[in-house]
From TrEMBL:
Region (Disordered): 32-67
Keywords, sorted A to Z: Signal
Protein name: Lipoprotein
Residue ranges, compositional bias (Low complexity): 42-51
Keyword Signal applies: yes
Signal peptide: 1-27
Organism in which the protein naturally occurs: Fodinicola feengrottensis
Length: 199
């Protein structure tokens, strides 16, 4: 994989929704625009990546959480997005991806994620997401919220579909910001950004 494509995957993956009412996304010092969780930053896994067995997810859409306080719903929806919806969508057939994301994500983020997955398909590559959430804090202003997370993604990475070789590996303890909005009384992820910081 060329250095240019690695940078492209990172740029597409690490983006955020502009205009966050809290102003927290711009406070991190990085430009914001719609996008998805950076599933595997382009950190090389070494000279001889080891083959890995492709996961066989159940492909069951997450159930949207609509009970509890707003903060409890935001927490649950963010965790479901990180640990269930996105990992399944990245390895699912193209026809199943939107349905896996919709319970916990919304446009414009869904479109960005689907475009990224389609681009990987064209390269015969697959992103395998296995994130461990170390911490998660929430700031909310009306119908907009920011979930500030510390995530370990070292168990995931980018894989070649044909050879099953791991091409990149996720990074440990990275700060990721998730923008959520309330849509018809359901909190959904609308974008993410990376602060470029360890936590």
């Amino acid at each position: 994989m060329t250095g240019h494509f690695k940078r492209l995957v990172r740029i597409v993956a690490v983006v955020a929704l502009a205009g966050l009412a809290l102003g927290a996304a711009t406070a991190c010092g990085k430009p914001t625009q719609p996008g998805g969780l950076p599933p595997a930053p382009s950190t090389s896994s070494g000279g001889n990546p080891t083959p890995s067995t492709s996961p066989s997810p159940s492909l069951t859409p997450p159930v949207a959480v609509t009970t509890g306080t707003a903060e409890e719903q935001i927490d649950a929806q963010t965790r479901s997005f990180i640990t269930k919806a996105l990992p399944q969508a990245y390895v699912a057939p193209a026809s199943r991806r939107r349905g896996l994301l919709e319970p916990v994500a919304m446009e414009p983020a869904i479109g960005i994620y689907l475009n990224q997955m389609s681009a990987l398909d064209q390269q015969n590559q697959e992103q395998r997401v296995e994130e461990q959430i170390i911490s998660l804090t929430i700031q909310r202003s009306g119908s907009t919220a920011l979930a500030n997370t510390c995530v370990d993604s070292t168990k995931g990475g980018l894989f070649d579909k044909k050879t099953n070789r791991q091409l990149t590996r996720g990074v440990p303890r990275e700060v990721l910001l998730f923008t959520l909005k309330s849509e018809k009384n359901v909190w959904k992820v609308s974008g993410t950004s990376a602060k470029g910081q360890k936590c």
